[in-house]
Amino acid sequence: MIISVMDSDSCGGQIHRATVRRELELIRLCCK
Questions:
Q1: pTM of the full structure
Q2: What backbone phi and psi angles, to 5 degrees, belong to 23?
């Protein structure tokens, strides 16, 4: 399942489409 991340702007805009698992991991690394 692919979902778009609207909060990607706050994370640097590097995340647009990612799997649920990778999204959470990327958000943690990106927003942390």
A1: 0.31
A2: -60, -50
